[in-house]
Design a protein that fits this description.
GO cellular component, one term: mitochondrial matrix
Main location: mitochondrion
CATH architecture of the largest domain: 2-Layer Sandwich
Number of strands: 28
Helix content: 40-55%
Shape: globular
Structural class: alpha+beta
CATH topology of the largest domain: Cytochrome Bc1 Complex, Chain A, domain 1
Radius of gyration: 32 Å
Subcellular location: Mitochondrion
Family: Belongs to the peptidase M16 family. PreP subfamily.
Number of domains: 4
Number of helices: 39
CATH class of the largest domain: Alpha Beta
InterPro entries: Metalloenz_LuxS/M16, Pept_M16_N, Peptidase_M16_C, Peptidase_M16C_assoc, PreP_C
Length: 1095
């Protein structure tokens, strides 16, 4: 779900995309025990701090207890989820339903964070990053609601942040100048010159122009607008740049008064902090000041979209994408179905499973080596003995059973002499050998026979990869096969899949990267696949695999689980649903099983009802237009001219004065002392909680294990490292391809039992997976198949399609992660591991994938993948790690032993070729200087940079940042309006940091708080000990590092900055990613590389 949020630093520790049904177990502290005692004493109907308890439920599958309350006076709702987790969360959500595309909800979210009555300083969220130990801080604007969540492990910090959040939401200043800054304004290009040109400016105005600069973003938003044309989703909640200038300051204040009211608010708290203190705080701070207003709650409700009487086909346009491998294939099309009100939770649970069954695709690369009967039946091959094979050779490989043939104009005499001398003169005729190998006649049957066999469907049916015609469509049996394996497009269309974040859920399926004349083929492929699914049904094992995946996701733990729960429950709760029903996972699973048992056609009937007979069906087609950007510029200029034509002399004077005033306010230094802060000495513990780790050796492989409260899941990690600490240089760019093939290889049924497969290109490579304890054998059997039997050349088309999908996804990521790509490319000039990272995950990898995606024949790729497999997938290169509950450790290690014993050994010889050594020349964490780097990078130098560039990067635009990742220091900016000034500021920051007179002891303390957000971030049981396993960082090393961090002084920072940033400047590089510009053309120091689309 797309959200628009602030551009301040998000310090979330979300390790996985799975926001949802996952949980973890924590040990009780005395405070947690007291909280649990209080919670257990609450009963439905009890009153507490102005609240009345409406419902209480234990949710054993999630290891939590849920309390639903209503504030009697204000009508505000509150959901508390008590769970033994120290990473506590607070969030407040408001239903914000715009009636136009002016972006009022989005701009209001920005203004609410420009200071409040009790905390009258600009951008308190950003400033709290250096005064807090928060594990997450952010705010989101969605199409129908706005959320303000944070999480922290510190009680004092929790109350500090809660006071700031509550004041920002319910008592913001909402100043007109902030509206001009954050929303939109007319301003001179040179604010000091009243005769310079006037144009549109504004943080949200520019943000939304940037957001709609990619075809994927345009398609995602327009899909929702067209599928729900009669309610709030028809509007652009983030703001249409051509409509934002229609928003007035008065309309924004009115929107706040009606929507940011407790009558329209939903609060959530999560974790092991006591509920009573939360309720008392919120009541005293906010809710006691308000009275329930039913109109505020009712007026923000989203009405149902009326169902259409017939399908609709809409057309939209986007700018061409210069990064795609096939420029003539840039059309995107999808078929979309409006489904069910999301408050019908079980029906949507069923639809989610059904859509997963329809979209999950088989993988053709993990094939049996002996697939043909003549090659051996896998069930019979184990019956073959070595002696029988030798006997077969002696009887059948004999000249008595041989036939020779020669052909051509070479002399016959020489052939005969050679064969006689070399072979035949050594053998004597044996009639038995010839007779025994003869094939007897098949006796004629007395009557006809009808025999039935089965095979997988062939989606190609004699057609070429990109050929499409109606006659082959009936051979397709699933949406994945119909769209992806058919080779029609490069990837699924944006937003493909089941979605339940809107008032009514929907299902979207389609393709991107197709030719315009293939649109009808895609539509027919979808229709045919749905009809075939009705005829074929779904095998029971596939349904069980999906339900098993639900169970696994329910048990799996993520590092910010409370945030995941809030994100999952919020849409249901926003639209009047009971959030407790959304927690009942087991109930939904059991009901689903009962329905399926009662009616075996339950799911196929749903396909008829929800898809085949559904008249609320949208076909959305997007085509590139070379005139798209020019048309947008013309429309913006026309809008600007209309605004300017209505200005009086008084208005022009006011625009000039407002520009100067806004600049003056930005230059003023806020008094941050009004904000609460933690104390380094009082609120950061000097103690470090050690992790219980054990090590051993199994068959010469190093094994680490750690007994953890993993809730019935076994976590497996392994490092793959060739004997020589080097890697053939020409193979490095193919490692991302190899990773994709390995992790996308298993059959869906196998993968459902495991949860996921992951291969990280860190060098040494790290592979990981997890499963329920009962499926340990299946998990390692799957890895054994990958190590021993992975085949790259059984289905070239599938491999090529996988590469094209990856290329499409990487191209789409460029506009959103350009600064990360720039950092990787810049650091690559330092060589070693940084060069390796650029080749495997930087711009070089994007270009390499694009070149591979344009190939029609992937045979050259296959040979490189085989070489990588021979280097990495063997017993000699592996060491393993297991995290599981104590009773599971021993059987897990026994299974690991069988796994290592069963996989191949490395070959005796390695490829003779140029190698890339990727040893990381890192500064050891025990060295005295290492712990000082984060202070200059994470906070102090950033303070200088932000001051130096305040006029270029107003609040909540992506500011330049400086990061410390020993042994490198990275400085980056994003969507930078003036690179020259930024580079100068970066260079000057080193000098600034090397003089301790530029910062105070308080600055250093705030820097320490910023650093400890990383040092003390929550670590899940699945991740305990991994830092030691992967990087060799022991608990003692982390403890020593922690002590040094706490004791860093201004003098330490000055000395290290002088030594490493001022005196050693030779090992540095600068990279600029963006369009052509005069700067790089005129300066010979720049090496310009132009990324061009394939011809």
């Amino acid at each position: 779900m797309l959200k628009f949020g602030k551009h301040f630093k998000s310090i979330s520790r979300l390790k996985a995309a799975n926001y949802g049904l996952s949980h973890g177990l924590r040990h009780h502290s005395s405070g947690a025990s007291a909280a649990l005692s209080l919670n257990r004493s609450l009963k439905v109907g009890h009153n507490l701090h102005g609240y009345q308890v409406q419902a209480i439920e234990d949710v054993p599958e999630l290891c939590l207890s849920a309390y639903l309350l209503t504030h009697v006076k204000s009508g505000a709702q509150h959901l508390h989820l008590y769970r033994e987790d120290t990473n506590n969360l607070f969030g407040v959500s408001l239903r914000t339903t715009p009636t136009d595309s002016t972006g009022v909800a989005h701009i209001l979210e920005h203004l609410s964070l420009c200071g409040s009555h009790q905390f009258p300083c600009r951008d308190p969220f950003m400033k709290m990053l250096s005064r807090s130990l928060a594990t997450f801080m952010n705010a989101f604007t969605s199409p129908d609601n706005t959320m303000y969540p944070f999480s922290t492990q510190n009680t004092k910090d929790f109350n500090n942040l809660m006071s700031i959040y509550l004041d920002a939401v319910f008592f913001p200043r909402l100043r007109r100048l902030d509206f001009n800054q954050e929303g939109w304004r007319l301003e001179h290009h040179d604010i000091n010159d009243p005769n310079s040109e006037i144009g549109f400016k504004g943080v949200v105005f520019n943000e939304m122009k940037g957001y709609f600069s990619t075809p994927a973003a345009i398609y995602s938003r327009k899909l929702q607008n067209h599928l729900f044309p009669s309610n709030t989703y028809a509007n652009e909640s983030g703001g249409d740049p051509l409509a934002i200038p229609d928003l007035t300051y008065e309309a924004l204040k009115e929107f706040h008064s009606r929507h940011y009211h407790p009558s329209n608010a939903r609060f959530i708290t999560y974790g092991n902090f006591p509920l009573e203190s939360h309720l008392a705080f919120i009541n005293d701070y906010v809710l006691s000041r308000f009275t329930f207003n039913e109109d505020y709650s009712r007026s923000s409700q989203v009405p149902d979209q009326p169902k259409w009487s017939k399908p609709v086909h809409e057309f939209i346009e986007s700018q061409p994408d210069p990064m795609v491998p096939f420029p003539d294939k840039q059309t995107t099309v999808s078929v979309n179905f409006m489904l069910e009100d999301i408050t019908n939770t079980h029906e949507n649970f069923t639809l989610a499973i059904l859509c997963s069954l329809l979209m999950d695709g088989p993988n053709a690369l993990l094939a049996n080596t002996y697939a043909n009967e003549s090659g051996g039946d896998p069930l019979a091959i184990p019956d073959l003995t070595y002696e029988a094979l030798k006997e077969f050779h002696s009887r059948h490989y004999h000249p008595s059973n041989a036939r020779f043939i020669t052909y051509g104009n070479f002399p016959l005499e020489s052939h005969l002499a050679f064969i006689n001398d070399y072979v035949l003169s050594r053998f004597t005729f044996n009639e038995d050998y010839s007779r025994s190998s003869q094939v007897p006649d098949q006796p004629k049957w007395s009557k006809p026979v009808h025999t039935f066999i089965e095979s997988q469907p062939d989606p190609y049916q004699g057609k070429g990869l990109f050929e499409t015609s109606e006659d082959y469509l009936p051979g397709l049996r699933a949406l994945y096969q119909a769209l992806i394996e058919s080779g029609l497009g490069s990837d699924f269309s944006p937003n493909s899949g089941f979605a339940n974040h809107t008032k009514q859920s929907f299902f979207s399926i389609g393709l991107q990267g197709i030719a315009k004349n293939q649109v009808n083929y895609v539509i027919k492929a979808v229709d045919t696949a749905l009809k075939n699914a009705i005829n074929d049904g779904f095998p029971e094992e596939r349904i069980e695999a999906i339900l098993h995946r639900v169970e696994l996701q329910t048990k799996h733990q993520t590092s910010n689980y409370g945030l995941g729960l809030m994100m999952n429950l919020n849409p249901l709760w926003t639209h009047g649903g009971n959030p407790l029903v959304g927690l009942r996972v087991n109930e939904h699973v059991n009901t689903f099983r009962a329905q399926l048992k009662q009616n075996p056609k339950f799911l196929t009937n749903k396909i008829k009802e929800r898809f085949i007979s559904n008249t609320h069906r949208l076909v959305l087609e997007m085509n590139p237009s070379e005139e798209y950007e020019n048309n947008l510029k013309e429309k913006e200029q026309k809008l600007l001219n209309e605004k300017l034509s209505k200005l009086s002399e008084k208005d022009l004077k006011e625009i000039y004065e407002n520009g100067l005033e806004l600049d003056r306010i930005q230059k003023n230094k806020d008094d941050v002392s009004v904000l609460p802060t933690l104390s380094v000495k009082k609120d950061i513990s000097r103690r470090f909680n050690a992790t219980a780790i054990e090590t051993t050796q199994i068959l010469n492989a190093d094994i680490q294990w750690s007994a953890q409260p993993t809730n019935g899941i076994t976590y497996f990690n392994a490092i793959l490292k060739p004997k020589a600490n080097s890697f053939p240089h020409h193979l490095v760019p193919y490692l991302p391809v190899f990773s994709q093939v390995v992790t996308n290889n298993p059959r869906p049924l196998d993968l459902a039992l495991v949860g996921y497969l992951k291969l990280e290109m860190l060098f040494p490579e790290v592979i990981s997976s997890h499963c329920l304890d009962k499926n340990i054998d299946q998990m390692f059997r799957l890895w054994t198949d990958i190590f021993n039997r992975i085949r790259f050349d059984d289905d070239y088309d599938h491999l090529l399609q996988l590469i094209r999908m990856c290329s499409a996804e990487m191209n789409q990521s460029l506009p959103y992660h350009g600064h990360r790509y720039a950092m990787n490319r810049s650091a690559s000039s330092l060589g070693g591991a940084f060069k390796y990272r650029e080749l495997t995950s930087g711009l070089s990898s994007v270009s390499h994938f694009r070149s591979l995606a344009s190939l029609e024949d992937c045979k050259p790729i296959v040979q490189n993948l085989k070489s990588i497999a021979s280097l990495l997938l063997n017993a000699d290169s592996i060491r393993c790690s297991i995290n599981a509950e104590a009773p599971t450790i021993r059987p897990s290690l026994q299974t690991v032993e069988r796994f290592i014993q069963s996989i191949n050994k490395s070959s005796e010889t390695s490829p003779q070729t140029e190698s890339l050594n990727v040893n990381i020349p890192a500064v050891e964490p025990t060295l005295s200087e290492h712990h000082v780097f984060p202070f200059g990078a994470n906070y102090l130098a950033n303070r200088f940079i932000e001051v130096a560039l305040h006029s270029l990067f107003p609040p909540r635009m992506p500011p330049p940042r400086l990061e410390s990742r020993p042994p490198r220091i990275l400085m980056n900016s994003y969507r930078d309006p003036n690179v020259d000034q930024t580079i100068n500021a970066f260079n000057s920051s080193a000098e600034w940091l090397s003089d301790q007179n530029n910062y105070s002891d308080q600055d250093v303390d705030e820097a320490k708080l910023s650093v400890f957000q990383d040092v003390d971030h929550p670590i899940m049981p699945s991740e305990q000990g991994l830092e030691c396993f992967v990087n060799g960082i022991t608990d003692q090393m982390k403890h020593d590092y922690r002590m040094r961090l706490l004791d860093v002084t201004k003098t330490d920072i000055e000395e290290v900055a002088q030594r490493y940033l001022v005196n050693e400047t030779s090992k540095s590089g600068v990279i600029l990613i963006g369009p052509r510009n005069d700067r790089t053309v005129s300066d010979a120091k720049w090496l310009v590389t132009e990324e061009k689309p394939n011809a």
